[in-house]
Amino acid sequence: MAEHRKRGRLDSLAALRAPNMRKALPRYGRMIMDDLPTKFQIARRIVFEPQKSMTSAAMWREHAKLMRKYSQAQAMIDEGKLDLRELDVPRFSLLDLKTKLAEDVMRDCVMCEHRCGVDRTAGKRGICGAGMEFRLTGSHVRTDYEQELTPSFSIFCAGCTVRFVECENQGNSDASAGTEWPEGKVARWAEEQHKAGCRTLAMTGGEPTLYVLNFLKVMGACRANIPVVFNSNAYLSEKAMELLDGIVDIYLLEFHYFNDDCARVLSSAPRYAEAAKRSHLLAKMQAELVARVPLLPDHLDCDAKPALKWIKDNLGPWTRVNILGGYEPSFRAREFMGMNRLLLPEERDEVVAYAKKIGLKNIV
Ligand code: SF4
Q: Does the beta carbon of 162 lie inside 6 Å of ligand 1?
């Protein structure tokens, strides 16, 4: 095993033993010990019987029915009453139905809160600029973020749903950047990297919401029991999250703004706070969650602190929260009042002290 992976594994093991991590991500802890299957491995064993010319409404009804079966199967597996090996892999599964539904959602695209309504299957492009192809700007083994999730095989998607003026990752936020990759090949990489010691497969970017369809195809082709991390700006629609239910094991969601005026001015993202709250609530219901709160200078009182208070009140004091204090003025940030400077270490200290004071107990 490569040295950086060994080091990453050791860090990760230490993080995994921490009681706070076990409280926040109990299922993940069991998956990486191979004690439990990942969600997508259960979903690919739930039988789907396609009917000729199913309407969109009929497919969503079928999806609701199969998700109930999925939930029952996962509960029995988690309680030790059912072994995954007792379930055959059918010709068509819940994953195939989700893939069909993802195409359906893209015909009138509402994958994210912009809700452009363009037909991406007919070559039209919305605000994000993404089409049907799976465009990646890179894939790397990462050991440099939340240690319990690393080493992680990270797939960097091209394009983004939100135009953050402070984005330090502009190279990844153009949907025409990068290279088109077949989903089957990405699945083979994930299998190889899992064997080589990666703990997780992370969909990141850019923004993976653009590529829910391609992501479902990757998971349909992947045979490894590798936990799936979805690292997103939390600007997803309910439909996108319904499709990801039963696939994503851990949501790594960023809560950028609590104030819609800030979101509109700094990122042209209408209804951002509403979308972020909804995404965090659904993430907690569907899977396990690590919440990130990136700090912006002069936005501690209007965005960061209210977001932390909301997290504590609505997701609970043991929610794992990473308060990100590494802000530097990148991209167009210099054009905006108060954004043209580094965040001071004492500003992060102030927010961490606030988070502890209001009762958050699981701060990374
Ligand atoms: S993913 Fe979002 S921004 Fe892109 S086309 Fe769909 S609704 Fe529009």
A: no
* Separation between Cα atoms, residue 290 and residue 145, nearest integer Å: 12
Our mutation pick for probing the ligand 1 site, out of 107, 111, 243, counting the most ligand atoms within 8 A of Cβ, is 111
**201 and 157 Cβ atoms separated by less than 8 Å:** no
Q: How far is the CA of 95 from the centre of ligand 1 (A)?
A: 22
* Segment 307-362, tens digit of pLDDT: 999 999 999 999 999 999 988 877 676 777 777 888 999 999 999 999 999 999 99
Q: Which of 240, 248, 255 is closest to 291 using CA atoms?
A: 255
pTM over 0.90: yes
CATH topology of domain 3-357: TIM Barrel (3.20.20)
Side-chain half-sphere exposure of 190, counting CA atoms within 13 A: 26
Query: Is the distance from the beta carbon of residue 240 to the nearest atom of ligand 1 less than 6 Å?
Result: no
| d(CA 242, ligand 1 centre) in Å | 16
Instruction: Return the residue matching tokens 């695209």.
Output: 109
Tell me the C-alpha distance between 86 and 95, whole Å.
19
Q: What average pLDDT does range 244-267 have in this prediction?
A: 95
The structural domains of the chain, with segments of one domain joined by +, span 3-357
